[in-house]
Amino acid sequence: MKIEVFLDKFESFVGVNFWTMIFAWCNLLILYLFLRKLLFNPVKNMIDSRQKEIDDMYSDAEESRTSAASLKSEYEEKIEHANEESEEILKRAVRRAQLREEEILAEANEKARRTLERASEQVELEKKRIINEVKDEVSDMAISIASAVIERDVSPDEHRELIDEFIAEMGD
């Protein structure tokens, strides 16, 4: 009886029947289990699948970012390599141009030296030819004078005349 008295006082204080409350709790538990089976699990599965899609998107975006960063560094490295290669090509071209310039100058100097040598040889030959011609003319005149002197006895005045005549002929 004590329990019944207590339940009556509780019911009058709260205004709810104890058995009604137990029945409501049982209904709530059954509803919870029913909703959990039919509603919560499918909704949880749907939320998990959406979360997986979002995680996949983030991982794909991260992979793309990583790939883009690696491509960027690769392109920068290729550009650096291309710059170094172009500098090397330019240096080689300058070196070849300098060598060609030196070759051309050496060839020109050699050609000028040969031309000067030929000119010197020609001058020397011309000089010898002229000296030989002068010698021939002097010899011819000496022979002419000697033959003229032998033909007659020459006095000192005639001797001077012959020399002056010889000199005059040399001038012609």
Q: Compute the average pLDDT.
A: 84
Strand-residue proportion: under 5%
Give the proportion of residues in helices: over 70%
Q: Which geometry do the CA atoms define? A: rod-shaped
Helix and strand pattern: HHH
Count of distinct strands: 0
- Helix count, per DSSP? 3
Main sheet characteristics:
none
State the domain count.
1
Low-confidence parts: none
Question: What is the rounded distance between the termini?
Answer: 182 Å
- Cα-based radius of gyration, to the nearest Å: 66 Å
- Structural class, from secondary structure content? mainly alpha
Explain what the structure shows.
The chain has 172 residues and is mostly helical. The chain has one domain. The protein is 95% helix and 0% strand. It contains 3 helices and no strands. Helix 2 packs antiparallel against helix 3. The longest helix has 134 residues. It is rod-shaped. The chain starts with a helix and ends with a helix. The relative contact order is 0.02. The mean pLDDT is 84.
Explain the layout of strands and helices.
Elements: H1 2-14, H2 18-151, H3 156-171
